Amino acid sequence: MRADETTESTSAGSGEHAEDIDVLVLGGAGVDTIVYVPELPLPYADSYMIDRGIRPRAGQTGDFVALGLAALGLRTHHLDFLGEDPEGDLVRALHRDKGIALTVIPQPAGTKRAVNLVGPDGRRLSLYDNSRGRPADRFPEDTLRTLAAASRHAHVSITHPCADALPVLREAGAGISTDLHNWDGENPYHEAFAYEADVVFVSATALTDPRATMRRIAERGRAEVVVATAGAEGAYLLADGELTHVPAAAPPGPVVDSNGAGDAFASAFLFGRLGGEPPRRCAEYGALAGAYACTVPATESAALSRDALLARAATGR
């Protein structure tokens, strides 16, 4: 282990053996500050009174995927950069409290953070601080190779410097998934992730033609499965050359926040895939987990358990 590297592990450590890890989650660790606003878009005003508080909460995309996977019983290990700051402490505490193994690479620029404005209908506007990194940042190759060799699968966030880790993950033989989030289908930054992963998730929000983009990902890259999530409209699944629609699942309670729904979908989909389920069933698992996530307030971190997911899948709700 290098001098600039620390490991904080609650369920796995530096002595992993082959396939001791079900899923290695790469990147996407950080803190969101949640602000509930009266409407979105928020009209200009000199000030607003926020009666529900302004609260920082550990949990960005990688954290939420790791949380979802661990709740479903998968052996999960998270690798990312964190600062020695209060935000980094929140992320460390989340992993410790949830029993998720965490390997930390020190980040002098500080822990990734964002401000999320959440409207009354649960929609979110995220203001992401992209200053919490350095262009020259790279994961230590020895650490990355060790963790990849011990993993059945790697889920790669699109945060820097995860793209540079993709060749090492591929060489290690782990399956790879990624979430392109609100890609517009054109930004070249996302292409390394889109064309290198075996399973690709993307939000349909910014896509002018989701079906065409999904087919392009499959044709140009390695993807065996492409999923475009579309919120209340469900999701589109491309597998074995066939594109189908997967209906949205009914939320088990009032919808209060959409933050983390896509991460929950990805976690449950991967749970099904690693369990040998067909793609359609995996997507149905994802829809159920995503619907549950919409009932969890943005200030909290909770995920659907394995037993709850399987029970809801058995009843179709």
Automatic annotation (TrEMBL):
Any one GO molecular-function label of the UniProt entry: kinase activity
UniProt name for this protein: Sugar/nucleoside kinase (Ribokinase family)
Provenance organism: Streptomyces rishiriensis
Domain Carbohydrate kinase PfkB per the UniProt entry, residue ranges: 65-301
Keyword Cell membrane: no
EC number: 2.7.1.187
InterPro entries named among the record's database cross-references: Carboh/pur_kinase_PfkB_CS (IPR002173), PfkB_dom (IPR011611), Ribokinase-like (IPR029056)
PANTHER family reported in the protein's UniProt record: RIBOKINASE (PTHR10584:SF166), SUGAR KINASE (PTHR10584)
Gene3D superfamilies noted in UniProt: 3.40.1190.20
UniProt keyword annotation of Phosphoprotein present: no
Superkingdom classification of source: Bacteria
Key words of the record: Kinase, Transferase
